[in-house]
Write a structure and sequence with these properties.
D-amino Acid Aminotransferase, Chain A, domain 2, 6 helices, binds 4'-deoxy-4'-aminopyridoxal-5'-phosphate, D-amino Acid Aminotransferase, Chain A, domain 1, amino-acid biosynthesis, alpha+beta, 309 residues, branched-chain-amino-acid transaminase activity, EC 2.6.1.42, pyridoxal phosphate
């Protein structure tokens, strides 16, 4: 995430990345109500185009987040879709690229509480990334002592920057204790999600994932995976999940735009299955790769094509 691209998109035009400045007042209370998205563009298997994955769904979620936070985004969906595609072309990517659309209150804000209806600047930044899908590794996870934010306090379905302090605390604790990623429980002590990724378990050939009212972001990868599982004829259940079910899982995996499909090989120090990514996780990762790289014709509407420069 440190590469400097040539351009970013800012409130209607491409601007040189190095010159995209704000006043210091944009970083204080103004940033509390800022919302964002994380999107990936994959190099197609044919090497001839980039495929932005589920762009419209990500942008819709950005508007949903803005609506709940009562922020006004002065650009319509077509404009933002054009912004993303135009930015990929302008920056000349010939490889996988991550896209970060976000919105924050425009102008100088000194009020402690950003007023409802505040008009936002909208930006899209981008940088190259290396997909882990084809690498096939796993990670070690641990249940966090930090509780997932609840609907009663900070709606977890909003992708607001301020929500990420929750996952950040959990991640630091997990790393401190020698694990890779945290798993957070919600206010009912049921499993919610990781710090930036949803979670599913496999037991007896059935996939179980916490329901959308468990304190999870309505993950687009989660929805994709549930669709792929139905394509594969695998039984899927969305319901409340107990912590102890994690200990009995045959397979466990995170799913998110950044994480893609990341198998969990140990949870709270207990080995999951054989301690290596399980068969269904591997099948799913392969199906996800085929999908995002344009080898699977079934869900074409999820791919926005951008020709290589
Ligand atoms: N939960 C949180 C808190 C996240 O930040 C993300 C990443 N956007 C996810 C889950 C996964 O969502 P998606 O699959 O849409 O990237």
């Amino acid at each position: 995430g440190t590469a400097e691209p040539e351009w970013l998109w800012r409130s209607g035009s491409l601007v040189p990345w190095r010159e995209a400045r704000v006043h210091v007042n944009a970083v204080g209370h103004a940033s509390v109500a800022a919302v964002f998205e994380g999107v990936k563009a994959y190099l197609a298997a044919d090497g001839r185009r980039l495929l932005v994955f589920r762009l419209e769904d990500h942008l819709r979620r950005l508007y949903d987040s803005a609506r709940i936070c009562r922020l006004a985004l002065p650009y319509d969906l077509d404009t933002l879709r054009g912004a993303v595609c135009g930015l990929l072309t302008a920056n000349g990517y010939r490889q996988d690229a991550y896209l970060r659309p976000w919105a924050f209150p425009q102008g100088v804000i000194r009020e402690q509480m950003v007023p409802a209806g505040t008009i936002c600047e909208v930006l899209v930044d981008s940088w190259p990334f290396r997909s882990l899908l084809e690498a096939g590794g796993g990670c070690r996870a641990a249940v966090s002592s930090w509780q997932r934010i609840s609907e009663a306090a900070m709606p977890p379905r909003v992708k607001a920057f301020s929500n990420y302090h929750n996952g950040r605390l959990a991640l630091m604790e997990a790393r401190e204790n020698g694990h890779d990623w945290p798993i957070m429980l919600n206010e009912r002590a049921k499993v919610s999600e990781g710090a930036g990724a949803c979670l599913a378990l496999v037991r007896d050939g059935e996939v179980v994932t916490p329901s959308l009212t468990s304190g999870v972001l309505p993950g687009i990868t989660r929805d994709t995976v549930l669709t792929l599982l139905r394509d594969l004829g695998v039984r899927v259940r969305e319901r409340e999940v107990d912590r102890s079910e994690l200990y009995l899982a045959d397979e466990l995996f995170f799913m998110g735009t950044a994480w893609e499909i990341l198998p969990v090989t140990a949870v709270d120090g207990l080995t999951v299955g054989d301690g290596v990514p399980g068969p269904l996780s591997r099948r799913l990762a392969a199906a996800y790769t085929d999908l995002v790289r344009g080898r699977d014709g079934r869900h074409r509407h999820w791919l926005t094509e951008v020709p290589l420069p």
